[in-house]
Amino acid sequence: MPIQTQLTKMLGIRYPIVQGGMQWVGVPQMAAAVSEAGGLGIITALTQPSPDALREAIREARKLTSKPFGVNITLLPTLNPPDYEGYARAAVEEGIRIFETAGNNPGPFIKFFKSQGCIVIHKCTTVRHAKSAERMGVDVLSIDGFECAGHPGEDDIGGLVLMARAAKELKIPFIASGGIADGRGLAAAMTLGAAGVNMGTRFMCTVESPIHENIKRKIVASTERDTIHIFRSFRNTARVFKNKVAVEVVNIERKPGAKFEDVKDLVSGLRGKKVYETGDPDYGIWSAGITVGLIDDIPTCKDLLVRMEKEAEEIIGQVSSAVVKAKL
Length: 328
Ligand code: NAD
Fold this sequence. Notes:
Blueprint: H1 6-11, E1 17-19, H2 28-37, E2 41-44, H3 51-64, E3 69-75, H4 84-93, E4 98-103, H5 107-115, E5 119-124, H6 127-136, E6 140-144, H7 159-169, E7 174-177, H8 183-191, E8 197-199, H9 201-204, H10 213-221, E9 227-230, E10 238-241, H11 244-253, H12 264-267, H13 269-278, H14 301-327
Parallel strand pairs: 1-8, 2-3, 3-4, 4-5, 5-6, 6-7, 7-8
Antiparallel strand pairs: 9-10
Nicotinamide-adenine-dinucleotide (NAD) binds at residues 21-23, 44, 46, 72, 74, 76-79, 150, 231, 234, 236, 238, 260, 267-269, 272, 287.
């Protein structure tokens, strides 16, 4: 029996699994592969150098899949201010009807997307921000636990408590993000009240992911102890792979009076992009969640989704029968 939820019905997808925005990874090939496999693929707007390039990326993805896919717009500090409005307009004009928003002050974007009849999935890391986005009219919340790759916020609440709090407080459906890479995670998220899951790191390590094979193998070889937080002192915390550059950044941050300018060149996204292109895991900063400790293969997106659903169903079945047996 397929796992059907409010999410699969709302988005018209087969599996309740979303591939969240990922800088340099959420390209048309990635998003189309996830959508074609039955999940929701998402193109990351800022990975494209301009709104016109985003238009081209959307057209490219359409050639690869006729299934729904979305666009991510993340509003966080950047080295060069992007034309967020231009990206948003371009995506709507290209017919995108599903958006993932994330980051600071998403209000105007949520309002714009809703005025255009779009579905908005807003990703956030606290229940208070989730409730505020709910009041703004978003359709789904993507609740990002402390386990996540990239920016976990500053409250440090792990997924187990965060999802349970979301289930108690929210009126609209939410999906669980951060720490999910397999059917066990999907089953756990649904048990906590989620209508599905969001995954990033797990999709980075698939056949169709555009990153260098060495980085996929590095993820497979890693444990849950192989990530680190940078930017804590600048209140823009980011979980990244624990490599030489990340450790150097943290050491600089620890010096009294450290400023963002002191690490700016080390952390540039363009430098991180080279990691994915060249396969050198130490070249720059690259995002990774602690799910690196759960990932031990490089499947196709389709095989991954089929396997996750099967595992989740088996686990839910085992839990139910254990409960029944305990009652007898
Ligand atoms: P970038 O080169 O502009 O910046 C590199 C890193 O430094 C980013 O993590 C950024 O948040 C941080 N940063 C920049 N200016 C800062 C400041 N003044 N204070 C503190 N931190 C600062 O980043 P990029 O790789 O070109 O990515 C563009 C944007 O997309 C960034 O905001 C990044 O955080 C965000 N992002 C989005 C996703 C996504 O899923 N859509 C994933 C990762 C990062």
